[in-house]
Each structure stands twice: as C-alpha cells, then as structure tokens.
Fold:
Amino acid sequence: MNVTVKIPISEPDLTGNEEAYVAEAVRSTWISSSGAFVERFEREFAEACASRSAVSTSNGTAALHLALLALGVGPGDEVLVPSLTYIATANAVRYVGAEPVFADVDPLTWCLDPEDLAGRVTPRTRGIIAVHLYGHPADMDAINQVAEAHGLWVVEDAAEAHFARYKGRTVGSLARLATFSFYGNKILTCGEGGALTLDDPELEERIRLFRNQGADPRQRYFFPVTGYNFRLTNVACALLCAQMERRESLIARRQQIFETYEALLADVPGLGFQPVAEWATPAPWLFSMTVDERVYGRPRDALMAELAAQGIETRPFFMALHRLPPFQKASQERGETLPVTDRLSLCGLNLPSYPGLRDDDLRRIAGAIKRLRK
Ligand SMILES: *Cc1c(COP(=O)(O)O)cnc(C)c1O
Structure:
C-alpha cells in the first residue's frame, strides 16, 4: 500500500443529492436565508429530533449564543458547563456577559457528572449546558433533577451527537432547548451551520427574533431588541436536506468503523475505549480512546506524532477549558479542581472517523498503532 496517501481526521460525504439540491437552489435564485430548503430542513430536523420545531443558524456557536439570549442570560449570571468540551460551549456564555463555571465529568460517560454539578450551584447560577461529548449522551434525567431542585434551565449542546439516544429518547428533545452544529466534521454537515430544537413556541419566537437582527416580523423596520444576523442560507439547507436523506446509512457506516476499530485494537495493552452507559446509544462521531502511557509504552503525543509521520491525522482530546487563558484566572479564584477532566484531556485521542474510510484504511491505522507499542 502507498503509505504517502494521507488519511485525514474527517471528511464530509456529499455523494447523495447534495450537488443536485445545491444546483436547484442556485437555479431558483433563492440563495439567501429564505427558501424551500430552509423550511424543509427545519421541518425534517425537528421531526427527527422529536421536537416541535427547529431553527437553523449560521453555525453551532451562534445556536448556543441564541439559546442564552432567548433565555435572558446576562451579566452577573453563572452557567454551569463541563470543562471537557469544545471552547464554543463556554465562549457563548461569555458573549452574553455571563460567567461559565466549570464542572467535572463522569468517568463512565465523559459528560457532566450530576453529583459534581450539584456542588457547584451558587445563588448566581441560572442554568446548565450539558454537552453530549464525542457522541455520548449526558445523563439527562439526573442533570434535569439537579436543575429542577435549584430552579435552573438546561440546554443540550448536541453538536457532536446528532440522533444519539438516551433511554430510547433522541437527543435534542431532552431539555428546555438543544443546539447542534453542522460544521464540516460533524455527523450531518453543510460546511458551516447549526440549529436549535425545542418545544416552546414563545422561546422559539425569541430565538427567531434575535437570529434576524431583532426584526419584528409584524412591522417592517421595527426592532424591539438588539439582534444578530445568525441566519443560515437556502444553499446550506439544500446540503442538509440531502444529508438528512442519507442519515441512516451515514451513521451505519460510521458505526461499522467504530466496531472495526474496537475489534482491531482490542488486544493492544494500554489502550482504553470510550465507555458506553447501559442507557446510551451514542452517535458515532469521532472514535475516541485513551492511552495509558506506562502500559502502552509511549505517551499519547508521541503516538500522535508517529502516526502523523505515517500520514495518519489524529486529534488530542479537548484541552480542559478551565486551564485556558480566557478562563484560567476565574477558575483558580473559584478554587476549581476537575481531576477526571484533567486526566482525560491529557490521555485521550481521536482517530480518523468518516463514512468514506475504507476497511484497508482502518487496518493501516490500527496496524500502525499496534506496531508503535513499546
Ligand atoms: C462543533 C462544536 C460546537 C460549535 O459549532 P460550530 O458550528 O463550529 O460553531 C459547539 N459545541 C461543541 C461541543 C462542538 O463540538
């Protein structure tokens, strides 16, 4: 095999009706944020997420920002978030002038630990953003219970977990609101895009208001609030409609890839796989594993460097947000210690995961990981 062929960490699969639908949007001249594909996508995505409605947005970060605006979060408020997540989750809290307070994750789900969460509630806490990390749903019943006990709202950040299931129910329908991303490496993609799903018509109206510059839909050029332009285009929704048609086969292929990785790597000492709670049906987003460097014989970063030299792209787990410059000082002042987050952040690794990977790519990747064990 030609080892100079590079294997990226991710690559969109646009081999269905994507091209035809984009051409249809172009021919129709509806290329801005109104059009048949926007309406169709919002309807179909809401249904697939067992929600009353879906609102498309320019990206997943804008969806989080809109969620917080619509919930009325502002300066002086605190929002509980995991520290082990992509930075967008915490950035959105800062955009509305509030402060993200970090909680640790559960070693059995890698998502918010409900007990740890409860201990971090203060009189300023307004809500919780539960992230379904690396496709695995957070323990939403327990998290919703903590929220109820303290009068808080809950938002799901489902950017990495499209159509994952929690106790048989689909993510996107498990809290007050949920947010999604359709960035190029996500399970469904349109390059850049996002959405919110929810059941509450009043909240939906506020989200649509803030998404569209604060424009009153009943009175042209009347703006009751300062809003944003966070709309998604009909061209992007054309891509998403095509992706929705194939979502089951896209996810089935990803699932096969995950099972193949686990089978090929099962007997490599020092590697650990992402745990799956008994109540969870995770979404196969990025294949995630841990490296115990004493047993594997090589630290994670050294393994990543060796794989990169062989043309295999990998990703380290997210850096713990409470240790990053924008958040570190505030976190230290609160005296936050997050041992599970710290451990996972330093030993976790994502392998190439996308429907277009072939079985011989998987054998090449797993073979390299086996041979690199010392
Ligand atoms: C990708 C991602 C986002 C942000 O989505 P964008 O579309 O890139 O803005 C937010 N949260 C999590 C957990 C993500 O993985």
